[in-house]
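Consider the following assembly input.
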Amino acid sequence: MPYINVNNDFAGIRGLMAFSPETAEPMGELANALLKETEGLSPAERELIATHVSYLNECFYCHNSHGEIACIYLNGDRELVDNVRKDYQHANISNKLKSLLNIAAKVQQGGKFVTTEDVEAARKQGATDKDIHDTVLIAAAFCMFNRYVDGLGATTPTDLSTYPPRAQQVAERGYGKHIFSGAQPAAQKV
Amino acid sequence: MPYINVNNDFAGIRGLMAFSPETAEPMGELANALLKETEGLSPAERELIATHVSYLNECFYCHNSHGEIACIYLNGDRELVDNVRKDYQHANISNKLKSLLNIAAKVQQGGKFVTTEDVEAARKQGATDKDIHDTVLIAAAFCMFNRYVDGLGATTPTDLSTYPPRAQQVAERGYGKHIFSGAQPAAQKV
């Protein structure tokens, strides 16, 4: 049960977004601009950054939701997603993505934790200005999304089988209004 | 100098937004929805919450920018703004706003720091579901904005006299595109 009466039974951020569509719309548009963008980082890499930051923030709802979306983009490689979530330094990903996850983890602690050396290390692995910009903003945005969900005590399904159907919907349709409006099949009210 | 080449000389978040208009637009719309809204909390109260959270995050650019906007709404009472920024418990504000600033400060630490007791305390002071929702999301959003600014090392003017002209513009026109686009008088390129 969330701390406030959201007047709906959607789980996680969806329940909060349905309560406040005025703020939900730009949040959905920001998520689309950051996570569905294909220039530079791939959607899979973007969702992996979101998953790792959400894991660091201990946001169960978000790291499972975005981990599942990353998993779809990675053809079901859930083991890779789990490795990036918990121990990206030893995961089977590029050195470039590792250097960006290092920056993302610094941002999770606070903006001032990022150093010139962190940025230079990413550049040496081929990261562009846009890659670095997007990494910092994805990490920063998930410090918002995670706090929104947990700060209002949003309903968090513990049954992991409820996450893949929602992830499929987001992978196909993006972070649009469908996330928080309209009737949903009962099985997806999670 | 920011960590990336933003190709403009706007200061603070404006320089980053001009570099990335696709993400800047929804961020501006979210700021408008959260900070210019007049239902429930006043714009002054909203900017005070933003200022306090930015101060806790040690984001010099943001706590001075939003402190100046709050100051305009409060008829120039800079002392009150400074008291809320640094020690709201002893500031001359309502007990309701104090109880909401307590929640905002918990959100700054992390979403899970907010307790049922914090929320109940705010309700006892007259806070509605919308007040609590908006407080949590303003605090969460500034955990994003602050990290975006400092995580990319945005240019931060140290001359405090440069903040009031920008604050006046935002107070009058909101957080629209004018913030990061179009020619600005040289004196406002800060």
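Chain A has nine helices and no strands. Ask yourself how this observation constrains the way the partners meet.
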